[in-house]
Write a structure and sequence with these properties.
The chain is an alpha+beta fold. About 30% of the residues lie in helices and about 25% in strands.
Length: about 575
């Protein structure tokens, strides 16, 4: 039976159309490095759920399709689900998490599972009105290496002095780090050099309860949970490789959007208390400076000094001196002369607001780090990238005609049918075209172990704009994306060169867009971004994801870029440590 055509529309906004597409013609993005590190991004169900009346069941049905696609993609790369080291799971509602979890456990297994970040980004914002989107990162042969009891096999898969993969899976109540509350591990380390931490929320380890300042004081509770989340992250890093928070290459901080957004209470018109963005940044800066209050080498009570440590109290005479020197080494807050409300970090950090996190948490911290061995052997540095400006100048007629997905002449097929002759988008006879303009700045920073691995944050900041009197026009139409995205990707390639690597080493780009400016499901953005990726990277294109969040009002886009050559990192660490042990 022939499928019914959807009503013609040039708008792709999930908020403004009632049409739900019947299919998604989309393949996951994939990038496989020479060392067998694979990133698969934007895995979504191509088929709509059969039972859309039950949201939870529909989410499970989508998840099962996603696991089938993931298994097939892994198989083509000669990998299995046990090789997966990290998973990003994006849901429309966090309530879907419980039912999906049992199928997630069956797919990845309960023994030494991947680390995971699971958050809800809202309804109607995943393309095609889907409910589940998944990214994963896998290291070839690491699952077999972790589970093999054959000494010969381990010798073959593990390089001299470094394990191919190490996993920290906390399974019992402790005083130092939270128990894993699902089928995931707290941290996964690849080739002894790069560690990916599971999303850390503000759980008190011995009680496994979220720290709170009372149900009626969500702002203070959010701040307390954020401090605890950083403390938990520091404890996990210390236990995994005796690392500290200044070993971090880049951080993502999630906060609850209700806490961040000023609004009026439903019962009265009194303004609701909200948390300023700069206060979140200040809490993060303080946590990094103090390593979350954790003394290096003592988080788990073992006092160990793995991977190049220097013994008790990190080589200092007592605990007090060690803590003081640790603060000085860390990324201490540096206030800008012109704006004392904006702390600067030597560690690139992005703060975003989303609707929901697991267990009702109000904040979460997600980190990519180097191990203590890599930090001391290779070294880590941070470089601010040179900023640039992009200006767009369009007529109001051009904005209307750009409403469809044909940005740059390349469409991202999501199952919609687009039509340019929609009467609702035509100007009335005699209506005057209004000039529109938008000026943006592209800047960023990169933190790296030279030639080995790096994390960069690239932002597109709104400087000034005029919507030509069209109050409903969002920033996606006003910003010429075919100008913005190439400039943003130019910064990504520059970050790779600064870090001593090449654009071919860019593993993954995760583009966050601000729903305060761009109120749709990202279809137009994907078309423009994928065209820019293909043009700038060609066959060496990285995997890429596009995620809707809320950010500070002047941030329109923010891209997290992971660049790595872990085989080179392994060689560098062997040159410094491995030969002495052989």
């Amino acid at each position: 039976k022939e499928e019914e055509s959807p009503p013609s529309s040039t708008r792709t906004s999930a908020m403004t159309t009632n049409y739900i597409p019947t299919k998604l013609n989309v393949l996951p993005h994939g990038k496989l490095t020479s060392g067998g590190l694979l990133h698969l991004s934007e895995i979504m169900s191509p088929k709509p759920a059969s039972n859309v009346s039950d949201e939870a069941s529909a989410a499970v049905e989508e998840a099962l399709h996603i696991f089938q696609i993931a298994r097939s993609a892994l198989h083509r790369a000669s990998m299995t689900p046990q090789d997966v080291i990290y998973v990003h799971l994006y849901l429309s509602k966090i309530a879907h998490f419980a039912l999906i979890n049992q199928h997630y456990r069956a797919f990845f297994g309960a023994e030494l599972p991947p680390s995971r970040s699971c958050v809800a980004i809202g309804e109607g914002v995943i393309p095609g009105n889907r409910r589940v989107l998944l990214d994963l990162c896998a290291q070839k042969s690491s699952g077999k290496a972790m589970r093999s009891n054959d000494g010969g096999t381990k010798q073959l898969l593990h390089s001299s002095g470094n394990l191919l993969r190490e996993v920290l899976h906390v399974q019992g109540i402790s005083y130092w780090a939270p128990v894993c509350v699902g089928p995931y591990s707290q941290a996964n380390t690849v080739r002894g050099g790069m560690t990916m931490l599971a999303g850390q929320i503000g759980l008190d380890p011995p009680t496994m309860a979220l720290v709170s300042r009372g149900e009626n004081n969500r702002v203070e509770s959010c701040k307390a949970q954020l401090r605890q989340a950083w403390r938990n992250a520091a404890a996990v890093l210390d236990a995994q490789s005796n690392a500290t928070l200044d070993h971090c290459l880049g951080a993502l901080v999630y906060v609850n959007s209700d806490v961040m957004m000023p609004s009026n209470d439903d019962n009265n018109d009194a303004p609701r208390q909200f948390l300023p963005w700069n206060e979140v940044e200040a809490i993060s800066a303080e946590a990094i400076a103090q390593n979350g209050g954790i003394l290096s080498g003592f988080a788990d009570g073992q006092g160990s000094s793995n991977d190049g440590g220097e013994g008790e109290f990190d080589g200092y005479e007592d605990e007090e001196t060690a803590m003081e020197m640790q603060k000085q080494r860390a990324a201490v807050v540096d206030m800008d002369d012109d704006d004392h409300s904006k702390p600067k970090f030597s560690i690139p950090i992005l703060t975003v607001a989303i609707p929901e996190m697991p267990m009702g948490a109000l904040s979460e911290v997600e980190l990519v780090c180097v191990t203590q061995k890599a930090f001391k052997g290779v070294g880590v540095a941070t470089v601010e990238l040179e900023s640039s400006k992009v200006s767009s100048s369009l007529s109001s007629r051009s904005l209307l005609q750009m409403g469809n997905a044909q940005i740059g002449g390349i469409a991202w097929d999501c199952g919609y049918n687009y039509c340019d002759d929609d009467d609702s988008m035509k100007m009335e006879s005699g209506e005057q075209e209004q000039p529109c303009y938008c000026n943006a700045e592209i800047n960023g920073s990169v933190r790296f172990a030279k030639g080995c691995c790096a994390v960069a944050w690239i932002k597109a900041l709104l400087l000034s704009h005029d919507n030509g009197g069209n109050d409903e026009q969002d920033m996606a139409g006003m910003m010429e994306l075919e100008l913005i995205f190439p400039e943003l990707l130019k910064k990504v390639k520059n970050a790779a060169h600064v870090a001593g690597m090449t654009p071919d080493d860019v593993l993954h780009i995760r583009l966050y867009y601000n729903m305060s400016h761009l109120n749709d499901d990202g279809v137009r953005l994907r078309s423009a971004f994928n065209a820019a990726i293909a043009s700038n990277f060609g066959k060496a294109a990285p995997a890429c994801s596009i995620i809707p969040v809320v950010m500070e009002s002047d941030v329109v886009f923010a891209a997290q870029c992971i660049v790595c050559n872990l085989v080179h990192m392994e060689s560098e660490m062997w040159a410094r440590y491995g030969r002495s042990s052989n």
